[in-house]
């Protein structure tokens, strides 16, 4: 491998690194939404795998069955995080050509 090839590869890696940094900023603004219990609990997560909102329909709040509400919240949060991870992988794949990079 010649010096020109190494320099070219380094420039490509620097360009990819800049694109990834920009994408990470953009992913903080993109969101996914997941619901459980027919929409009784709705959770929104961003591309940083942060939960940005949780909405609970008052009908789902039954003091006699708190466990059901907890299960609905847990299911919606897990689904939102799963969808967020898929969104990140999809967007990252556009930059990396679906090459697996450590830490992403």
From TrEMBL:
GO terms for molecular function: DNA binding. It comes from the Bacteria. Keywords: Coiled coil, Cytoplasm, DNA-binding. It holds the Pfam family YbaB_DNA_bd. It is found in: Cytoplasm, Nucleoid. One of its GO terms (cellular component) is cytosol. Residues 6-33 form a coiled coil. Homodimer. Binds to DNA and alters its conformation. May be involved in regulation of gene expression, nucleoid organization and DNA protection. Belongs to the YbaB/EbfC family. PANTHER family: NUCLEOID-ASSOCIATED PROTEIN YBAB. This is Nucleoid-associated protein MGLY_13450.
């Amino acid at each position: 491998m010649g010096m020109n090839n190494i320099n070219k590869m380094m420039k490509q890696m620097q360009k990819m690194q800049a694109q990834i940094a920009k994408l990470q900023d953009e992913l903080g603004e993109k969101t996914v939404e997941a619901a459980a219990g027919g929409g009784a609990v709705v959770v929104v997560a961003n591309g940083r795998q942060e939960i940005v909102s949780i909405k609970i329909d008052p009908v789902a709040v039954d003091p006699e069955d708190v466990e059901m509400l907890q299960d609905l919240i847990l299911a919606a949060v897990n689904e939102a995080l799963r969808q967020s991870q898929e969104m990140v992988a999809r967007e990252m794949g556009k930059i990396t050509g679906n090459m697996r990079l450590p830490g992403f």
